[in-house]
Design a protein that fits this description.
With 102 residues, the protein is of the alpha+beta class. The protein has five helices and three strands; from the N terminus they run E-H-H-E-E-H-H-H.
Amino acid sequence: MGKTIINHMPLTKARINLGQVVRRVHLNREYFILEKGGIPVAGLVHVDDIEDYLDMRDPSLREQIRKSYADYREGRVREASELVGHLKNSRRKRRAKQPVRG
């Protein structure tokens, strides 16, 4: 992702050009700070960015990230390919245990 573009725009102009503004937010990941009388009152951001922001406000998720990072720092991690292999082997074993339907 490139440099974040932050635009300031009067609320009245944003209202007139809402379709274009939303398209720029969606396609270019631009941010818009909407102003009324020169005072910032609202912002438009891509839905993924607001979801990330809301997730980071969740204390249980922040704790999970903190613990995961501590595991990473302490070397309690494994390569993704190892995990995928383990999952595939577990799936094969489960299938082998299932009775044959007929």
